[in-house]
């Protein structure tokens, strides 16, 4: 396989749900038949499918996995699996007009789902014996269920493209009925050794079964890791992510579409800051592989294919210091531990971090002084209550308090702008927004403002207005 000729491109779930847009804007566009190739597409499940398979990403409403994992639900997961077949075959019905192709697509995914049903029934029966614990197998169950969504969308897309005269090739990394469990990189090498990129268009499942267990580390971010490693292993010229929106200077739904502008260029450091706030351009671990291999990442809008998108590289620094993006996170819990015994005791923070780690609670930011440490966490109230209970046991003489807040960040590849902090705090004060806490690192890539949750959108609008809008003309220059 010749290196540095091809691209590896990831298509998100919302984009995948619009086949015509994917075909017309991403895969075919204005390319000649010869220009269709030298590209690898890693695809996500259709919008909503992974929510039905696992649990709803935002509301937490249980899907098949969550019902199976809940011992009290008994056979509720089986009913949910039956509903899932209808949901998925309805998607097929909208996609395929040809009844023969629809039958082929339905048969493929129904066989997978019924295979999983049989496996889960056997596992439930096995775990009714005391020697076998269901908890030990749940991660495997989660991975097996997750893989159904990507297998479905990749198979369908391959079938549709083949019908339309494109030599698409279904590359199934989900491990369905595989007898050998390989490390991820080895699995990818094997999968692509047989692919001729000069005349084949691989459509690859975003989920890859491997020895490392992608969900153990990345959970629902697994498709980005697959995408990143495919780009690294095949030595891609460029990695591209197609989303349903531009990577812009702020959320257009908050600031207004006429005021925000797509970022022309930025670097992986900025992408990491966005990921920390839960607004991922790419998962930091996935970005790390691309950065180390010096593969540029381009984020493009599926529905504006003529726009060259945002180019992310490791070495980019803006020509002049400036803020590139205002982003934030709502629904953040501030967990404050006040204990006078902390003074001069260096181990206090480690004790708190051990508890956060035990409950798998990720912190976004923290601040500390002589006797107080506050962690700002993105988690559910249920998990926060468990953390607080454990902290009270760990710090019996301390005072533990929580508060729901929002974080708003000014981010850029180089924000060493004289007076930036003064201007930011002034505009927030002018809008009668109290700054509850403030974080700025010497690295000069972001400033985080902690504000009341009610002031989240107001703070974003105010900071965008003073730090970005006066310089918007500079952002219209898009990297070629």
TrEMBL record:
Residues 7-301 form the Aspartate/glutamate/uridylate kinase domain. The keyword Transferase applies. GO terms for cellular component: cytosol. It catalyses: L-aspartate + ATP = 4-phospho-L-aspartate + ADP. Its EC number is 2.7.2.4. Residues 403-464 form the CASTOR ACT domain. Pfam families: AA_kinase, ACT_7. Keywords: ATP-binding, Kinase, Nucleotide-binding, Transferase. The keyword Cell membrane does not apply. Gene3D superfamilies: Acetylglutamate kinase-like (3.40.1160.10), VC0802-like (3.30.2130.10). GO terms for molecular function: aspartate kinase activity; ATP binding. GO terms for biological process: homoserine biosynthetic process; lysine biosynthetic process via diaminopimelate. Belongs to the aspartokinase family. This is aspartate kinase. It comes from Marinobacter antarcticus.
């Amino acid at each position: 396989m010749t290196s540095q000729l091809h691209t590896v491109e990831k298509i998100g779930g919302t984009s995948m749900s619009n086949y015509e847009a994917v075909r017309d804007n991403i895969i075919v566009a204005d390319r000649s038949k010869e220009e269709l190739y030298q590209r690898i597409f890693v695809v996500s499940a259709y919008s909503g499918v992974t929510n039905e398979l696992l649990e709803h990403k935002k509301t937490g409403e249980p899907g098949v996995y969550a019902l199976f994992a809940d011992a009290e639900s008994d056979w509720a997961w089986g009913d949910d699996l039956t509903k899932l077949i209808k949901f998925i075959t309805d998607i097929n019905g909208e996609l395929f007009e040809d009844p023969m192709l629809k039958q082929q697509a339905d048969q493929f995914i129904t066989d997978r789902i019924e295979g999983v049903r049989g496996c889960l029934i056997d596992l439930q029966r096995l775990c009714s014996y005391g020697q076998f614990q269901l908890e030990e197998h749940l991660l495997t169950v989660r991975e097996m269920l997750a893989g159904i969504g990507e297998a479905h969308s990749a198979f369908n897309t391959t079938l549709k493209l083949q019908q339309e005269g494109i030599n698409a090739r279904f590359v199934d990394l989900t491990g369905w009925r595989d007898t050998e469990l390989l490390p991820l990189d080895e699995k990818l090498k094997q999968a692509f050794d047989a692919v001729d990129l000069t005349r084949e268009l691989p459509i690859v499942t975003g989920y890859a079964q491997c020895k490392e267990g992608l969900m153990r580390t990345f959970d629902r971010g697994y498709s980005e890791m697959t995408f990143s490693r495919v780009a690294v292993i095949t030595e891609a010229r460029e990695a591209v992510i197609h989303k349903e929106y531009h990577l812009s200077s702020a959320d257009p739904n908050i600031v207004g579409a006429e005021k925000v502008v797509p970022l022309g260029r930025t670097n992986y450091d900025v992408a990491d800051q966005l990921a920390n706030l839960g607004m991922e351009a790419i998962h930091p671990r996935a970005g790390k592989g691309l950065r180390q291999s010096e593969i540029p990442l381009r984020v493009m809008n599926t529905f504006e294919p003529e726009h060259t998108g945002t180019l992310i590289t490791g070495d980019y620094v803006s020509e002049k210091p400036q803020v590139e993006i205002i982003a934030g996170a709502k629904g953040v819990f501030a967990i404050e531990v006040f204990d006078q015994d902390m003074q001069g005791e260096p181990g206090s923070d480690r004790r708190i971090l051990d508890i956060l780690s035990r409950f798998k609670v990720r912190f976004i930011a923290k601040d500390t002084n002589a006797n107080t440490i506050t962690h700002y966490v993105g988690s559910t109230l249920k998990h926060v209550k468990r953390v607080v209970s454990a902290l009270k046991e760990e710090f019996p003489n301390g005072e533990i308090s929580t508060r729901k807040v929002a974080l708003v960040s000014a981010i850029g590849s180089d924000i060493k702008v004289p007076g930036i902090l003064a201007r930011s705090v002034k505009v927030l004060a002018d809008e009668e927004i109290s700054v509850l806490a403030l974080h700025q690192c010497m690295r000069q890539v972001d400033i985080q403002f902690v504000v009341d949750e009610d002031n989240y959108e107001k703070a974003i609008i105010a900071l965008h207005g003073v730090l970005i809008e006066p310089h918007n003309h500079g952002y219209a220059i898009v990297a070629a």
